[in-house]
Input
Amino acid sequence: MHVSPPELIPKSPVLGSLFLHRNATDAYPSLLDAPQQQSHRRGSLALAMVLRHLHLNPEDEILLPAYHCTAMVLPVISCQLTPVFYRIQSNTQVDLEDLEQRLTSHSKVLIAPHFFGFHQAAARLRAFCDAHRLIYLEDCAHAFFGYCDEQPIGFHGDYAIGSNWKFFPINEGGCLVSHRHPLDYPTQSASPVTELKAFVNTLEYSLQYQRLRSLRGIFSWAMRLRNRTQPVQSSSLASVPPEGWEPVATDPGFQVNEVNHRGTRWASWVTQQSSQTMIVTKRRQNYLILLRASQQWPGCRPLHPDLPEGVVPHVFPLIMDNPRQYFARLKFSGVPIIRFGEFLWEGMDPLTCPISADYSRRIFQFPCHQELSSRELQWMITTISHILHDNPATPAPFGIYP
Output
């Protein structure tokens, strides 16, 4: 059995007491501003949906960044299209010179992510796509909120995809939006069982991290019902890295048979009811707290040493000088680490983009979401600091498991 390190504070937003604090004036530029909206269960499924309806041919090429997760590539492959990987610059901006050299008569779509919530030069990409007759798909999986070149995120693309679950306290949810084209693709509603699982999984994740504790007894019936329809998968948790431990690739969550499934009503309701001001304010505050703390950490540097106006970060990305030295100890101390691009597409030549290959190994991402308590954030900062300073003692773990 694969040994799993614990995550003693929540990696993604949990359902707490703050999310319903929305009022009539609580709004911030976001994907929700697009006039055309379609809900999906994941952003990757939204990507597959739009690719299916662009009337492309099997020999057509989709331009993707060499720095990617497999969930970005699988929708392309599922549509029998050809991925062509382009270089990024050290600040994760699209390398337009390299991109132009990769264009052929079969190039049809450019997919450009706002990595970690930090924006591409979207207006410039829009002009590039117009000049070369490309469809611009703005990948906002890391950037649900914010404004870019004086417009809401997602405005410049022909289409934009988002991942609601990375910004809201839900365990699933994605979207396809557009400011330029109608979205009338046929979809089907989530089943009652799927709706129940989405609701209960959200509650269970929150209760695991000591949120909504007063409701534990009220919702115990829902937990029992969920376990009858979906038995809990046990995993072996450990607090010390086993000798030779290595991470394994996780399921990217792309299920081709769910492409035409709408997101759950539960996910849509939470998205609509959540306080946008709170999400934006807390994420930016937490990012700046981590940024200040990182100035005292040896052997690393922040990918983005400042936080521009209009940016609402998904995570705090940190470039490590010696990632193998600290990765396992950080993980098994209970610090949640996200490794976007840790496993690149096997069919891509590693020499395509040396920066992407380097970042795949060396960038650790730490949570900065709105539902981190000040105590959890401080514990994470202290634990990271102790480990990077090679201090044998680490702060006591949180007791999240009942």
Summary: The chain has a mean pLDDT of 89.
